[in-house]
Amino acid sequence: MAESRTNQRWREEPRDRSVRTSDADRETVADLLRAQHVAGRIDAAELEERLERCLGARTYADLDGLLTDLPRPERDRPSRRRHAGPPRLSFLLVPLVLAAVVLSHGHALWLAVPLVFFLFVRPALFGRRRGCIL
């Protein structure tokens, strides 16, 4: 997992591709080339040629040229699960707000406004996010 983050990071940084590379960047590209060889996308002779060019690369643009015809590694994407049903906290809030409105003879009706916003408007506009209690 850390390796794929590193692979993705070197492809996105820096924006100016004429900046000189480090040994770690060259080693990351060499690992990517070896993985493509294992996957059967490049043969042994081409791997040797690309590894020589990789280890002699001075800029990010030189490294980019070695990988342009190869597929990019998959990004680590968090799985987006949709929660079925209403939020857990609503089972507590709805009866409490209703009890407050009834016991105050309607004077606490203003409590329903944020409840409606958090239970209906916010999920409709922004969707549910992981870790939210509502």
Report a brief summary of the structure.
This protein has 134 residues and is mainly α. It is 57% helix and 0% strand. 10% of the residues are buried.
Overview of this protein structure:
- This protein folds into two domains: 2-67, no CATH class; 90-126, no CATH class.
- Helices cover 57% and strands 0% of the residues.
- It is built from six helices and no strands.
- The protein is rod-shaped, with a radius of gyration of 27 Å.
- What is the number of domains? 2
Strand content: under 5%
Main sheet, how many strands, which sense, barrel? none
* Through-space gap between termini: 30 Å
SSE layout and pairing:
Elements: H1 2-12, H2 23-38, H3 44-55, H4 60-67, H5 90-103, H6 112-126
Features:
2 domains, 134 residues
